[in-house]
Input
Amino acid sequence: MSHNVEKWIDELTIEEKAALLEGRDSWNTNAVSRLGIPKLYLTDGPHGLRKVREDQGGFAITDNEHSTAFPTSATIASSWNPDNAYRMGAAIADECLAAGVNVLLAPGLNIKRSPLCGRNFEYYSEDPLVSGITGSAFVRGVQSRGIGCSVKHYAANSNENFRFVGDSVVDERALREIYLRAFERVVKEAQPYTVMCSYNRIGGTFASQNKWLLTDVLRGEWGFEGVVMTDWGATCDRVAGVLAGCDLDMPGGVWHNRRSIIEAAHRGQLPIETLNQSVKRVATLIERCTVQKPTEPVICEDPAQLACEIAKDSAVLLKNDGTLPLSRNEKLLVVGEMFEKMRYQGAGSSLINPPLVVTPKDAFDQRGVSYTYHKGYRAFYPERDIALERHALDAAVHADTILFFGGLTDFDESEGFDREHMRMSDNQTSLLESLIATGKNVVLVLFAGAPVELPFFDGLSALLDMYLPGMYGGEATAALLYGELSPSGKLAESWPLTSGDSSCSADYNHGPVAEYYESIYVGYRYYDKTGTKLRFPFGYGLSYTKFHYDNLSVSEQDGEIVANVDVTNIGERSGAEVVQLYVRNNITSEVFKADKELRAFAKVYLQPDETKTVTLTFLRSELSYWHVKLHRPVLENGDYEICVAASAADIRITAPFTISDAEEAASPYSDAVMSDYKSPPQSISASFAELVSNRAGTDTVTKKRAPYSLETQLHELRRSFIGRLFVSAMMMLIQKDYKKALSMPDSLERDTQLKNGYFLVRMIQYNSVRSICMASSGRFPYHIAAGIVELANGHLWRGLKAICRREKPLPLPSEQ
Ligand code: BGC
Output
């Protein structure tokens, strides 16, 4: 503890300490001017700096300062190049320094459990190694400039529909091996200044008051020394939160929470040592971000150019019969409004307001490409437009090649709600199918944050997935289509044919209790074992060139496994290959396991005929499984296999690998669990309750719902008369922003604000009464929230009494 912090702790009153543990408003923490303790400014992340122009209230997201819109996390993960994440982090931090921001609320490390999660565009991968390595690099990049990161959303937050109220019931092994693993790596490797806990419960206890998660694991086991903060509005019982190790309550202004800390400290229910621990951590963060911070941005890479470079390195070529790269001689028909209104980022708290966007149309025009263009459909509307379709189809007669620009819209995927299926909207698919039926070469250029159904796949000549490529995505698209460089991204997620094929489809979003019945069988760990036919496997991606793998050698030294393999570019163009190392698990294992798991990867850039030796390393201990009775990793003896691969389904070269000096531990599982889990279960298995009962920190596995409570989601509250009135009032408030955006002249700014307005309108219904209160920065006080719930339950008198209680906000110490 620094001298400053020690002195502050000695001199702060309990009231001031409580103030330090609460934000002041949406984005600032409280200062204590008496002692010269400054405030901090925290804001989103992760795909650029989102700083609101002014504090507009509870959600405060529609009107943001200009900043660089980088490719989203799903995109950058497809580059399999952590250097991209590092440079992007550093460039965003430079913008933070210039804007007076201290902590960036990023990156999102949640695992993609289902392709339907609306926020998948903001997460890296279904695999914890890819998420952990990419996330670590990002955090190191940001923090290299003295800006703190808040890695989020800790933990097991894999859906949006129930994120505010849901309970993730996950067995201890799946938590350790899948859902916590990326957080563990980032905490240990990159030491983020802060961690943001998620909204949901884990095993019955809200993350914001889950001692097992925040103190035992995060601090006790992983050595995290920074601040834990809540997600915006994730507090339930604030005192329970501090006792569990949750330091900072965000956003601020919920004085009722501050008061509960003060009262509990005075009454001795919150020991002063515990309070001081949290205050020490927040004070240390303040000191780190203010007193010790660099004063100037260090190097300024041109952030826009960097965004473009990363987009080029991340795009995934998913099919090509030789139509790509395009030549300049063909008669080209371009169809799809996304050509001029490219979808380059997702909606929600990560939404950036870039100063400009370079669309594919801009980039084609700048290159002097000759093409005929028809909109075919309207990007912001899901309905078909027959006249637009007709024009496009008529023009197809004269074309050699048709480029179709399409993908998901903000109506389909966004923070705040999940997709119901993986389909693109009908106005795109019906036109695309008709264009394919003309018999011309059709190339689909896709803009989407997650996989989509491709029923027309066989009819396509080529498919280039740009994901959500950031503000310079159009330039990257044109460069790749015209072969100025070769695509080199690979999927960081498996791509099922339909969402029904995914590992958790039997119980995804069926209610607030999410039973992670598939345990460790997430993504390729599931598909490998079930042999499900996929559209594309994990790690898949093509290039304009080809690579040959040779000479694999494996050695072991001091617990580290080193694999060397020669990779040669055997085609005629330069390109890059993502080399993946999976380890096939010992088939004689005592416990159920995935067939193989990713243990290392590297991206290698090669000129034609060039060979490079690629070195892939990992710790032998990483082959351990989590033993749920010993509550620690156990490494098993046995015959493993090192598989060097171009994708999870394309193993190129293997080497045996035996472990014979490890410990032997008896299986923790009963026969029932072993028999249900030897292969991935297709629905909630009979032994699931037994599996989750092993988990440390488990409370209850329950699907019960109260009548109306503070935990009721707004769409449910609507069932009561008072609820309807309340929800309509909320909607009116929120629709104000949306309507304001609608009345703006057609512009980039309008599109950005519309995206945000729409996100809020959709998201609000999934909020609980409590989370709205907690996220409102004091504008929707707790006693009013409680009163509305009473009224909705028909308790008129109690409700009115609560609402009319003249609760005066508790002044901040500096205001007294
Ligand atoms: C999101 C966080 C975000 C925060 C502040 C929350 O609703 O879940 O990711 O950092 O808002 O905008």
About this structure: The first helix runs from residue 3 to 11.
